[in-house]
Amino acid sequence: MLNRYFYRFFLTTIFFSIALFTLYCSKKYLSITNADLAFSSFMPVKIQTLNIIEQQKRLIVIGDVHGCLNSFERLIEKLDVTAEDVIVLAGDLVAKGPDSLGVLRKAKELGALCVRGNHDDEVLRWKKYLNTVTEELLEESNLPNGLVFGEHQEIASSLPEELFSYLVSCPVILSVPQYELLIVHGGVDPTKSLEVQDEYVVMNIRNILDNGSPTRKTSHGTSWSKIWNRIQSTKEHPTTIVYGHAAVRGLSVKPYSIGLDTGCVKGKELTAMMFPSKELISVKCHKHDL
Ligand SMILES: [Mn+2]
């Protein structure tokens, strides 16, 4: 009799231990931090300030282009861009789409500013790794944590010096004090000051888990922008964050956050917002950027 109770108790304990351990691991896996990467990228400038001068007409922020050169060119045409406009790309200029190098070339030619996206960073991490490794050592089993063979490696190995210089110059956070704006790729941890934000989190974040950790998943926790808006609405001088990275959520205009990734590479739209008017202009994208 005693034996049977003991057996039940034993099994229940094992069951709950496994359940708790699984929960712990999944939470750990979900949260993101720079420390997860064994091999770091070329360290970006963390915060850059953009001062708009009087002669400059419009500040134009454009969502994730992801190598869709045709759509990017059509949007620039539709915007009727002149030399007095300031263009900022909200990150993820490269990968997924057909012409990453073409997009970088066009952005550089336009004198566009940019912030670093998670895919841009992955290309730069590959570039740094390729600079240090010999051909013989380039094997799946030797790859540092966070790197996988694929298009990021291909882009990195065909990246000419001048386009590398352009991409590596994109800061993580671009601050526009005149318009009380911040431009980033992913978002921020709303509970932390700008100075202590983790660069990797800013490039990757989508949600905040219930335990307060940032995650790139949209399936767990609360969107960072919801928390950001709640905090900013109590401030005397609130700041608005313009970002990309969240194609699943599409265009998301809230009082203090503006999400501009409208899924061009998935055949949806490429979107630009003008400041200070907050006017939106977009073009329709096509599958494979045709
Ligand atoms: Mn992204």
TrEMBL record:
Matching SUPFAM superfamilies: Metallo-dependent phosphatases
The keyword Transcription appears for this protein: no
Positions of the Calcineurin-like phosphoesterase domain: 58-250
InterPro entries assigned to the protein according to its UniProt record, in alphabetical order: Ap4A_hydrolase, Calcineurin-like_PHP, Metallo-depent_PP-like
Keywords on record: Membrane, Transmembrane, Transmembrane helix
A Pfam family it matches: Metallophos
This protein's record includes keyword Membrane: yes
Chain ranges passing through the membrane: 6-25
UniProt cross-references to Gene3D superfamilies, sorted A to Z: 3.60.21.10
Protein name per UniProt: Calcineurin-like phosphoesterase domain-containing protein
